[in-house]
Structures are given as C-alpha cells and as structure tokens.
Amino acid sequence: MSPATILMLLLGLVFLIGGAEVLVRGASNLASAAGVSSLVVGLTVVAFGTSSPEMAVSVMSAYKGQADLAIGNVVGSNIFNVLFILGLAALVVPLVVAQQLVRFDVPVMIGVSVLLLLLGMDGRLGMFDGLLLTAGVLSYTIFLIRQSRRENSAEVKAEYEKKFSSGASAPGWIKNIALVAVGLAGLVLGSKWLVDSAVVIAKSFGVSELIIGLTIVAAGTSMPEVATSVVAALRGERDIAVGNAVGSNIFNILCVLGISSVVSPNGIHVSKAALAFDIPVMIAVAVACLPVFFAGYVISRANGAIFLAFYGAYLAYLILTATQHEALGTYQAAMMYFVLPITAVTLLVLGLRAFRKNPAT
C-alpha cells in the first residue's frame, strides 16, 4: 500500500464531496430558473446524471455478453439506493418526503420493478423489452417536467427571484449547466479513484477479490448518489436528496436496462437466481418505501437506521452465499421466519396508521 494509493483515496473523497456540492447548487438553480421544482430536478437531471456509472457498466456488460453483471449491477444499485443512501442521508438529517413521491413516483418505482420481473420471467430481456423500457423513461421524464411547470412555475420562479434579490446577479443558464456538468465529472472521477484505491488497500490486507466485488465495487457505482444525497440533505435540498434515490431507481430499470437490452447482440439473459431472490428483494425494498414515506411524510433517523440495518443484513447474506459459509442455513432461517415477518407486520401497521390519518392521500 503506497502513499500514492492513500493520496488517490483522499483525492477521490475530495472530488466526490466537491462534485456533489457543485452539482446540487447548479441543479437547484436550474430548477428555479426553469420553473420546475427541486424534486423534479432530483428525479431527472440529478438522478440520471449520478446513474451514469451504472449506465456505463451495464451497457458495456450487455454489449460484451456479460448479462449477469448488467442485471446484477442495476438490481444491486437499486437496493443500495434505498436502503443505504436514504438510510445514511436520513441519519444525517431527517428527510421530508414530498406528497408527489408517495402519490406518483414511488408507485412508479414499484411498478417498473414489478415490470422488470414480468419481462424477465421468460429468462431474457430482448429488443422489444428494451424499446418498451426506453419508451417508459421518455414518457416519465416528459410527464414530470410538464406537470411540474404547470403546477409550480409561478411559485418556483418567485422563489428564484427572492433568492437573488440581494443585488447579486442570478447565475445564467450556461453557468448553471456548467456547474451540473462539472459536478457530475467530479462525482464520476472521484468515485473511480475511491473504488480503485479501496480495492488496492483491501487486497493489501488480504481481503479476497470476491468480497471486494460484493462490497467495494458493488457500492462504487452508487458513490455519486451517496455523495449527492448526503450533501443535498446537509444543504437543506431534501427534495433533491430523496428524489435522487427514487429517480435513480426508475432510471436504472427503464433507461439503463432498456438501452442495455437494445444494444446487446442476443438480449440480456435473466438468471433464475435473479428472478428467485434479487429482483423480489428489490421489489420488496421499493414497496417498503410507501408506508415509511407515508407515515408523516418524513424519513426519520430511526427509519434511516432501520434501512441501514437491512442493507447490512442483505450484504451479509450475499457474502455468506458467495463463500458458502456454514452459517448460511441458520442465517436464512432467521431472516425467513423471524426478521422478515416482523418487518412485514411493522410496515403494514405503519401503512394503516398513516392511511387513517391521511385518507385523502
């Protein structure tokens, strides 16, 4: 482990944090200037931009015929986005959830997750499936922008004018777009340096490549989302923090897998293991958002801690399965017959309480 590796690790962290700060600032200004809400920018520009590593990895994997990597990258990132990113951001600052997320975007996230399962039931995502998914992301994006401009234009523009009424000139479109581009570049470069250096350090301590792949590399493509959501929460842009995670999940399925299916010579093979475990877990995580988000429209620090605990449990399962550890059977039984039923009942109670308090929603 050389000093250069340590320097790369530190620079990766600096670029991640700096890139996230610049991205959030530029995105927030663009939202106000365009007459759309910060939530919509978080669901679209920020979410799509921070998902660029997933796009690059999955499209190249599909083109080269490595379908398991393409599917695994998207499904794993979606689970990570909700459980880890929202969990960590909520621990930093409790996140207020916009009603639009509960009424529209989270149901869309659940719907496209179920759609992926249905399309993959025949064991393959082909050209038609890819075109269907890609058309879905275009329709979703256009609907969000048109709806937001119609409902929030006057309110958001008034906020923009107030924000820059102190005599300072408002940043122009070119400057804000440049901020977003620079922020995204910093996030991508920072995440690459961070992951590369972390892999070298882990190997120097004797950690196996399998474990490194399941942990550091798997989380590496989601580092931009982590940095962006945490920085957005700290800056008070909580709509961007939550919208980034939800929007990234929708984008990953509709756009990343859609384009990957189109460019893949023989389509994307969907393994039985993914259909039996990973995709259902992704759907369950998406469904779990509804009662948690619905209960007071706040992701509390307690909710954040629970999300992080479940990601730890999921990660432990992956590691035990990959290494075929002798404790796997006991762990599976404990999760299946104790943890999951208690979680399901808790979510059901939260959902019923929230519905009784807000029946109109």
Q: Helix and strand layout, with pairings?
A:
Elements: H1 3-34, H2 38-50, H3 52-63, H4 67-92, E1 95-96, H5 99-119, E2 124-125, H6 127-163, H7 173-204, H8 209-220, H9 223-234, H10 238-263, E3 268-269, H11 272-294, E4 298-299, H12 301-323, H13 328-357
Antiparallel strand pairs: 1-4, 2-3
Helix pairs in contact: 1-2, 1-6, 1-7, 1-9, 2-10, 3-4, 3-10, 4-9, 4-10, 4-11, 4-12, 5-10, 5-11, 6-10, 7-8, 8-12, 9-10, 11-13
Q: Give the full name of the CATH homologous superfamily.
A: NCX, central ion-binding region
Strand content: under 5%
CATH class: Mainly Alpha
Order of adjacent strands in the largest pleated sheet:
1-4
Number of DSSP-assigned strands: 4
Order of helices and strands: HHHHEHEHHHHHEHEHH
Tell me the span between the first and last alpha carbons. Answer: 55 Å
**Count of helical segments?**
13
Largest sheet: 2 strands, antiparallel
* Class from secondary-structure proportions: mainly alpha
Total domains? 1
Q: Using the 3D structure, state the CATH architecture.
A: Up-down Bundle
Oligomeric state of the chains in view:
single chain
Classify the helix fraction into a percent range: over 70%
- How big is the Rg? 20 Å
Mean pLDDT score = 79
Poorly predicted regions: none
Q: What overall geometry do the principal axes of the alpha carbons give?
A: globular
Write a structural description.
This protein is mainly α and 361 residues long. Helices cover 83% and strands 2% of the residues. The protein has one domain: A middle domain of Talin 1, CATH 1.20.1420. The protein is built from 13 helices and 4 strands. The strands form 2 sheets. Strands 1-4 form a two-stranded antiparallel sheet. The chain has a two-stranded antiparallel sheet with strand order 2-3. Helix 8 runs antiparallel to helix 12. The chain is globular and about 60 Å long.
